[in-house]
Design goal:
Blueprint: H1 2-17, E1 25-30, H2 34-49, E2 57-62, E3 67-73, E4 79-89, E5 92-99, H3 107-119
Antiparallel strand pairs: 1-5, 2-3, 3-4, 4-5
Amino acid sequence: MKANWLIWALPAVLAGCGVGPGSPGETFKAPVAYQEVYRRAVDQAEYCLRGITGYPVTGGVDTAARTSQMLVMGDLGGALTAVDARALDDNSSEVSVRVVGLNIWDVRAAKAMKDAILFGVPGCSNYMPATLTNPPRAIVR
């Protein structure tokens, strides 16, 4: 019985630690202004990452620094998801997406967040191929 309790408690404890340097995610350039990155990240978080408990989505836009940050916060205060954007120019940003690596906040969620930022459509799955070196061919009938 004690082992079962630990299995259920461990993800909650680890989620309290939050996103860190070794967390899954990536940094990429997006052809989107940093303010729009923030809006798209919030939309994605509201659509897919709040979980059944409705974790809070926080953050904001800093116009003076030309940066934005969106966080999905866990019950114990750690960030389950962090999206940071820095303006490269008026229409592009460097974006960092990091997730805690547990449950729905895993590498698939990081890829789905990247797609939502790049394409402007929230979705809970990543549908884009990892590489387009061998794109699928059209079926001709």
